[in-house]
Amino acid sequence: MLAKKNRLNLSKSDNKKLLSLGKKINTLHFFIRYKKELPKDAQISVLISKKVLKKAIERNKYRRRIYSLLRKCGFLNLDNIKMIINVKKINSLSQQEMENELLDVKKTIVKGERSEK
Questions:
Q1: Which end of the chain is more exposed for a tag (fewer CB within 10 A), N or C?
Q2: Structural domains of the chain sorted by starting position, each given as residue range(s) with its CATH number in brackets
Q3: How many Å apart are CA 4 and CA 9, to the nearest integer?
Q4: What is the dihedral sign for C-alpha 32, 36, 39, 42?
Q5: How crowded is residue 6: how many other Cβ atoms within 10 Å of its Cβ?
Q6: Taking a C-beta distance cutoff of 8 angstroms, is the pair 87, 46 a contact?
Q7: Is residue 32's pLDDT more than 80?
Q8: Whole-angstrom distance, CA of residue 41 vs CA of residue 31
Q9: What is the pLDDT of residues 80-106, one digit of tens each?
């Protein structure tokens, strides 16, 4: 579980705008929207629909794994960013494959931030 300051509450209307206004990154297993915004700490939410995994136990297990990988990959060190990670498919995805994919996403985000400055 992420610390409260790093959780993105999707029930707030301004965070729903992120779904339509943020930048998009599409990978094999994840669809990610992010936006540079004012809160100092990174705020992240992971969404796994019932279409991807039927059982809530499985969805929660993978959500916890992704949160731990986000911590490990340093996503929580990114400043002023709100991010929604939507899981598209997770069939035979290993921990290492998830980590590699998330590291590639982080490189893309950091590269995009540098080009904006």
A1: C
A2: 4-116 (3.30.230.10)
A3: 10
A4: positive
A5: 18
A6: yes
A7: yes
A8: 21
A9: 888 899 999 887 778 898 899 999 999
